[in-house]
Amino acid sequence: MKAMILAAGIGKRLQPFTDKHPKALASVNGKSLLQRNILYLQRFGIKDVIINVHHFADQIIEAINQNHGWGSNIHISDESVALLETGGGLKKAAWYFADEENFVLINVDVLTDMPLNDMIAFHLRQKPLATLATTNREASRYFLFDLDNDLCGWKNVKTGELKIIKDSGAFYEKAFSGIHLISTEIFSLIRQDGKFSMVDVYLDLLKGHSIKSFDHSGSKFIDVGKPESIVIADELFA
User: Fold this and answer.
1) What b/e string do you get for 10-34 counting C-beta neighbours within 10 Å, with b at 16 or more?
2) Residuewise pLDDT in 10s, the chain (238 residues)
3) Is 51 within 8 Å of 105 (Cβ atoms)?
4) Contact (Cβ atoms closer than 8 angstroms) between residue 147 and residue 86
């Protein structure tokens, strides 16, 4: 199985570090977020990885080359001309997964010890279009799942925005962990072009396809989005 690491974002929440560096190279106990996620994927046998780059792309490419991909086979998807967000970035890299049935998509700024092999096994058993790693933590935005663990909608707590695509009457709020298991079938179904979010893709497709939640609430997890979260990550991840 192959993977894509989303590392193109500007990382405004990590300023002032991201004024001069990409967030992918922010360090937790001496290892960059990028290195940690490459090594995380290796633990589950995934060594073929494509990484999208935009903000200080040259620094990411240099780090990869200097460290020989930390033992993985790394390809670059260059978004230097235009940042494409999560959905557009994935669509640009679709060629990389031509011979695959499923793949992993992960944000560079999340760290976890979630057993990815369990999530993969769940995805292969259930056979949804996509499986999203989630927890029960508090968040500003939630995916909404029904009693059958199928995605039904999305909610933004701060703005009050609510999108219910499948109304099943009862919903569970789940905070998304930035890790996806996706069937390559999705590339033939994505209607959006240019710059767009995977959230929009999922909401567009969930009426005709199953998108499941994989709850890993018992695992360590942190979104390393702010300077203060680096301190917490230092305590959680050696």
Assistant:
1) ebeebeeebeebbbbbbebeeebbb
2) 999 999 999 999 999 999 999 999 999 999 999 999 999 999 999 999 999 999 999 999 999 999 999 999 999 999 999 999 999 999 999 999 999 999 999 999 999 999 999 999 999 999 999 999 999 999 999 999 999 999 999 999 999 999 999 988 889 999 999 999 999 999 999 999 999 999 999 999 999 999 999 999 999 999 998 899 999 999 999 8
3) no
4) no
pLDDT (tens digit per residue) in 173-213 = 999 999 999 999 999 999 999 999 999 999 999 999 999 99
Supply φ then ψ for residue 150, to 5 degrees. Answer: -100, 140
Q: What secondary structure does DSSP assign to the chain, as a single string?
A: -EEEEE-----GGGTTGGGTS-GGG-EETTEEHHHHHHHHHHTTT--EEEEEE-TTHHHHHHHHHHTGGGGSEEEEEE-SS---HHHHHHHHTGGGGTT-SEEEEEETTEEE---HHHHHHHHHHH--SEEEEEES---SEEEEE-TTSBEEEEEETTT--EEESS--S--EEEEEEEEEEEEGGGGGT----SS--HHHHHHHHTTTS-EEEEE-TTS-EEE--SHHHHHHHHHH--
Q: Determine the Cα–Cα distance for residues 143 and 199; give it in Å rounded to an integer.
A: 9
* Chain centre distance of CA 166: 24
- Domains parsed from the chain with CATH numbers: 2-236 (3.90.550.10)
Separation of alpha carbons 105 and 2, rounded Å: 9
